[in-house]
Amino acid sequence: MTPIDPALVAQLSAVAVPTLSAMLYARGLRTRFLHGIVPANPAAARLIAPAVTIRAIPVREDLRDAVLKGEAPNLHRRFLSEVPPGAAVVFATGGAAHTSVLGDIIAMAMHRKGVAGMVVDTGVSDLPTVAAMEFPVFHGGGSAPVPSGAAVMVVDRDLPVSIGPVAIFPDDIMVGDASGVICIPRAIAAEIAAEAVEKEKLEAWILEEIARGAPLEGTYPPDAATKARYKAATGG
């Protein structure tokens, strides 16, 4: 896991996920927003962290039973215990929303060890308790009391995974807020963040113009005259 430059964190902290999505979309990256993945607590801290990936597949009962008997390692627990502080755990199961790979105890353990947050495509056990935490958890369903061992088994980590149609590579930058989660390729993250900051400055100015009575037509999206007024007003 490669830490994110603090200057980039500051920029990403200043812009909303929908703005980042718009910037990526303009570059032709139209599969970066994780549709259907929602925050357990929309008021929790924003997630900005490198992805550490864990992959699960449908369970095979004989292998699950070997884990329960202590004859095979519990990769679910091992991989979570080895997640480094500052990481965003991206836990992909192929969309098993009827089950859960975490509940309040795992969420608290990850929070206490300094993990930045979790993104899972399952439901969440103990959802009311998890939703009351400041720890950012983004999930693919509501409360899911079915234990993960009944449906999926963890098989590997630190490899590319998919959540829905979104391909997520280790060290991609995950950004989550009340709107949801987006995955930004590391190589272009600085450019996307800078563009998003400028877009939000422009849109904040446009909002003020509309509030003062400017017509929607020509103001949003801004035509050439509106852009010229913005440049004159802000020096941008």
TrEMBL record:
Entry-linked InterPro entries: RraA/RraA-like, RraA/RraA-like_sf
Organism superkingdom: Bacteria
GO molecular function, one term: metal ion binding
Keyword terms, alphabetized: Magnesium, Metal-binding
Protein name per its UniProtKB record: Ribonuclease activity regulator RraA
Annotated substrate binding sites: 103-106
Pfam families according to UniProt: RraA-like
PANTHER family from the UniProt entry: 4-HYDROXY-4-METHYL-2-OXOGLUTARATE ALDOLASE 3-RELATED, BLR3842 PROTEIN
